[in-house]
Amino acid sequence: MTDGPHGDGPEADAEADELTIADVLEDLAEDYGDVEARTDDAGVDYVVGARSFARLAGTTAHFRLRPEIVAAALRTPAAVASPLGPEWVAFHPAPLDQYALDRVQSWFELGHRLAAEGPGGATERH
Fold first, then answer.
1. Which of 42, 50, 106, 124 falls 20 to 30 Å from 10 in CA-CA distance?
2. Per-residue model confidence (pLDDT) at position 118
3. Residue 12 burial (CB count, 10 A)
């Protein structure tokens, strides 16, 4: 079997197995010039201005989304309600397969967009 046009196949699966959720979030953050990674004892917050939209706590990623999107996200594997509040979803996939990578990327990008929109898109973390 050979790799498809989107990096599908055994080699892509092997690369995904080596990735951690921290690696993925770090790579995604580098794609945005306005994202700052702020580290504290609780983990790493990904912030636009003063608005946190993603957090890495251990091996769990948390994403701030709209409540209706969180409700839908909670129906996906490895997603649970986040202790950060009702606008957050926690995601701890095992393994970090292509489907999980797609979710991390989608939720990071949406969280970023909502945070960049301002108070109407996502609110500041308390």
1. 106
2. 78
3. 15
